[in-house]
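During the practical work, I selected for study one protein's amino acid sequence and its backbone structure tokens, as given directly below:
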Amino acid sequence: MRRLTLASAGFLTALAAPAFAADPMPVPMTEPGFDWTGYYAGLQAGYGWGQSDITGTEGEPFSTSPDLDGGFVGGHVAGLWQFDQAVIGAEAELNYARIEGTTVLGPPGNNFGTDIKWFGSVNAKAGYAMDRLLVYGIGGVAFAGIETSQAPDFSSTSTHVGWTVGAGVDYALTDKFVVGAQYRYYDFGSEHHDGSDEFVGRDQDVKLNTVGVNLSYKF
């Protein structure tokens, strides 16, 4: 009986030895999702359109509304933090612009114009991440340098302060480079421009829509 037991044990050991000697079965690995937490800097460019309402505040009242359109290019910085699929953060932008328009009021040659020379904003940003895709809303305080003019030789520039809101989508091409597209609405509010001996003072209220594309680098 003892010999039978020893023989059985030896036989089982011989069967088990190849199984232990073989390489372990590979375990399937899943690629970790993109982490949106980090600091970003980049460039943006796009097209803007809107309207300027100009109203005289002295003497005989007048009102006119040039339509505006043109392009812009600028830069941005941002910081984002991801919690599960929620992403929150802050973003600031500054743009050089050539967004302008004119209209004629009264006799020919009496042109009224508006020119957005630059604009920017400081914003809160919140979105939903689906791995490398981020869909978000954005909004905050907006500001712009805007000129009002009237032919033949009146012009006045002031800094407008208002608000902005928008939405966009970003996609991480790599762990460092992110591309995206964005729509924004800006209300730069109304500013008063003093007149001169020949031109009356006026208020100017400017609203702007923009669509743009952006490229960001994640640090």
Notes: Confidence is low (pLDDT under 50) at residues 1-22, 27-31. Residues 143 and 161 are 4 Å apart (CA to CA). The chain is about 10% helix and 70% strand.
